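stage 2 :: seqdesign
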């Protein structure tokens, strides 16, 4: 099973320069290949497949960085073209901007076999990781793993921190199987309401940091363009955004792991988030709550640990059905209505708990 482990890197000054140089070379090669492919097609109606190697004679500085990183840029461009022709809704490949994109590059692990030893191009020794053309870089390995490293991706965040994502071929781990089934209704005031009656509050990390963020953004707007003071102010804003993201991911990771551990079958609703964002009064809160990311975490962890995720159809009216008799009532279409009262059997129940109980029925 393939798993990715993300660690913080602590490069020295020389290594930071190399990383930044590699980011630039990968971006340059990607844009150059895309430009040549577009030009060849417009002029001769022919499909051209340029490679990074053919640019190294003209641009000698490309030889200073990892060749595998440049090859991966070519693979990314080929994948972008494939996705576009497979589905035009994906969009035509775009040029990478120096400012608009998060700098990143990917390099592969090559294992050299010898009679006496097997040597990996990328390997972790102690608190350092060895990378091609740069040697050992200090990292914080907060999680150990057993397996073979396939490739790794180095990224620089807007807060000027470096991270490495290591893809590892490792053995799968299975949580003990149980007979528990649960339905989960997602919300804004309460992040999740389960069929067991548990209401998981929405931490609202963005709202708690809004005042501080607004203050820092006002300071940033007053700084002179391209000045050192503006860059310092930009870093402060980026760190606040990064903290909010980390808080949100920490909450989602812990909650999804707990639910996967405690239950064998989980039923969640298929929300049309794009349509829901048309409501401008709720769009900010919907974006902040990260329902889509939570669903993604549940789905891949279910595969890892041998659990089952059931997605309710998008037209399943979980909030309008009575969880006792099945009668359908449109009273809950009004979001102000927080209690479901069945006109047939007389059931009085919280609307969100009623919805989660209806979702649970799909697991039976």
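stage 2 :: out
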């Amino acid at each position: 099973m393939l798993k990715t482990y993300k660690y913080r890197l602590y490069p020295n000054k020389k290594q930071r320069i190399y990383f930044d140089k590699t980011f630039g070379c990968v971006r340059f090669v990607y844009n150059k290949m895309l430009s040549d492919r577009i030009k060849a097609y417009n002029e001769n109606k022919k499909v051209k497949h340029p490679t990074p190697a053919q640019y190294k004679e003209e641009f000698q500085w490309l030889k200073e960085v990892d060749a595998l990183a440049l090859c991966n840029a070519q693979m990314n461009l080929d994948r972008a073209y494939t996705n576009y022709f497979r589905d035009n809704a994906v969009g035509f490949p775009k040029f990478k901007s120096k400012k608009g994109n998060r700098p990143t590059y990917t390099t592969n692990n090559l294992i050299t076999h010898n009679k006496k030893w097997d040597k990996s191009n990328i390997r972790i020794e102690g608190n350092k990781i060895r990378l091609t053309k740069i040697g050992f870089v200090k990292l914080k390995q907060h999680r150990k793993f057993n397996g073979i490293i396939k490739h790794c991706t180095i990224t620089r965040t807007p807060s000027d921190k470096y991270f490495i994502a290591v893809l590892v071929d490792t053995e799968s781990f299975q949580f003990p199987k149980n007979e528990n089934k649960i339905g989960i209704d997602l919300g804004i005031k309460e992040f999740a309401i389960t069929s067991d009656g548990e209401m998981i509050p929405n931490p609202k990390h963005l709202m708690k940091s809004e005042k501080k963020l607004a203050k820092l953004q006002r300071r940033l707007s007053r700084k002179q363009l391209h000045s050192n003071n503006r860059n310092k102010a930009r870093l402060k804003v980026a760190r606040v955004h990064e903290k909010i993201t980390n808080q949100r991911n920490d909450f989602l990771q812990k909650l999804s792991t707990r639910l996967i551990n405690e239950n064998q079958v989980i039923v969640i609703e298929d929300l049309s988030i794009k349509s829901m964002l048309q409501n401008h009064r709720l769009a900010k809160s919907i974006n902040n709550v990260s329902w889509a990311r939570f669903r993604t975490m549940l789905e891949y962890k279910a595969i890892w640990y041998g659990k089952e995720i059931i997605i309710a159809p998008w037209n399943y009216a979980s909030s309008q059905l009575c969880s006792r008799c099945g009668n359908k009532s449109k009273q809950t279409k009004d979001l102000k209505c927080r209690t479901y009262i069945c006109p047939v059997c007389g059931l009085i129940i919280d609307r969100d708990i009623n919805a989660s109980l209806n979702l649970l029925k799909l697991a039976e």
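stage 3 :: structure notes
- The chain has two domains: 2-170, 181-363.
- The longest strand covers residues 147-156.
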